[in-house]
Amino acid sequence: MWLIYSLLLAVVNAQSPCDGVSFVDRGGWGAREPFEIQNLTRKPLSFYMIHHESEIATKCYDDDSCIEQVQNIQYNHQNRLDYVDIGYHFLVGENGKVYEGRGWDRQGAHSTGWNKDSFGICIIGNFNTASPNAKTLKAVRSWIECGVERGHVKENYYIITHQQSQSPGLTKGPGNGALDIVRKWPRYCSFENSGEFPRVNDIVISRALNFCKEEFSASSTASTYLIEPMISFCLLLIYYL
Ligand SMILES: *[C@@H]1O[C@H](CO)[C@@H](O)[C@H](O)[C@H]1NC(C)=O
């Protein structure tokens, strides 16, 4: 009995999406101290936002160069953009590792107007045309599921990209190479910021939430419309046979 129980536990544990993520904590990449800490107050959050970093970083494929890129990004955010810390919650390199930026508990600075209700992950490099490699995509998807499993993100979360979150043309992030893949993911929401609202308040994000809820309830109603008549049809068939 005990053996069966431990085996079961082992199977359950092995299936945790968090086990599929090679996290590198701040100590692991030599992060500098944040200038200030602001904790998230609305957890679990509603959105995941996908970014890339194409101006101050290049793609990295091994641990040393990925650490160098993450350090560069932190330097740029703290010393040039005047952020209190690296803006993203997490970053992922094409070595498949996920680097802790602000982590699960602190508010990020990754997309103006969205920072209170979204976790931002940055794919290191430029993905305007090329898509991230398989390792990277797998890491991002496991990270997404991990956040839900650990209760940082709602079960009915939505995935969005940086370019959709801001006025049209403001940013290309995470690049169309990445967007073309992300838009096929199950909780992807197609909301696009029209640019008609100010960036600094909560209007855009509450609009987005309503839009995404409707998009997802519409798609589940569509399947109900299909499935219910099919069931009735089968029952009728059985009845007449
Ligand atoms: C943020 O949260 C941590 C632990 O949850 C706590 O120790 C810390 O004091 C909080 N910091 C601020 C600035 O609220």
TrEMBL record:
Name of the protein: Peptidoglycan-recognition protein
Superkingdom: Eukaryota
Residue ranges of domain Peptidoglycan recognition protein family in the record: 21-166
UniProt keyword terms in alphabetical order: Immunity
Molecular-function GO term, any one: zinc ion binding
Family: Belongs to the N-acetylmuramoyl-L-alanine amidase 2 family.
Organism taxonomic ancestry: Eukaryota, Metazoa, Spiralia, Gnathifera, Rotifera
Keyword Glycoprotein tagged: no
GO biological process, one term: immune system process
Residues in N-acetylmuramoyl-L-alanine amidase domain copies: 37-169
Presence of keyword Zinc: no
Matches recorded under InterPro entries: Amidase/PGRP_sf, Amidase_domain, PGRP, PGRP_domain_met/bac
Pfam families: Amidase_2
